[in-house]
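Researcher: I'd like a candidate sequence for this fold, 105 residues long. If you have to choose between options at a position, lean toward the conservative one.
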């Protein structure tokens, strides 16, 4: 099964005029040559109006393996934090746990 990542999705939205809704994002991604997996991920975002690519990146759900380098403790902290429905947990702010911070010194 193929997977997509946030960079692929955001890259396919390079020609979008923001603000944009879900339908406009999908049309732009199709024109931008997004993969089927990227289009599928975009279809799952909440039907909101998005002001910029960062908001789209925070709302799209992608393969958890594409996590941007967070430790297991940070991923657990992200899972515990709430967010608006549909917000991708892997991009929520996650401070470094004190033990990891201490080990880095």
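Model: Candidate sequence:
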């Amino acid at each position: 099964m193929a997977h997509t990542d946030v960079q692929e999705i955001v890259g396919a939205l390079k020609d979008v005029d923001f603000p944009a809704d879900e339908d406009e994002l999908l049309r732009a991604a199709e024109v931008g040559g997004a993969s089927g997996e990227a289009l599928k991920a975009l279809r799952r975002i909440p039907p909101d109006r998005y002001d910029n690519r960062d908001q789209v990146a925070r709302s799209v759900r992608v393969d958890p393996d594409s996590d941007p380098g967070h430790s297991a403790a940070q991923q657990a902290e992200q899972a515990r934090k709430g967010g608006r429905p549909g917000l991708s947990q892997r991009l929520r702010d996650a401070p470094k746990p004190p033990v990891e911070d201490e080990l880095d010194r």
